[in-house]
Design a protein that fits this description.
The chain is mostly helical. The chain has helices at residues 4-12, 30-46, 53-72. Helix 2 crosses helix 3 (53-72).
Length: 73
């Protein structure tokens, strides 16, 4: 659901880290895939601008980490 340009922006900003950054086709950890799917839905539903995607992905990842910590306790 993301354009190539949006994906490159997220990687360039350091918010999204590919497992194999030097490869021609990037692969990502599964936890990113879930966040990216959510990000795509939010982008479409709320017509988010491309420049806001990095911030939104940062928030989604932070929420995922906090939920994981809560479930451990």
């Amino acid at each position: 659901g993301l354009s190539s340009e949006e994906l490159y922006q997220l990687v360039d900003s350091g918010v999204l880290l590919p497992i194999n950054p030097e490869a021609a086709i990037w692969h990502f950890n599964s936890h990113y895939v879930i966040s990216i799917r959510t990000l795509c839905r939010l982008k479409q539903d709320f017509e988010l601008e491309s420049n806001s995607l990095a911030l939104m992905l940062t928030f989604l990842e932070r929420i995922r980490i906090l939920e994981h910590q809560l479930n451990r306790h």
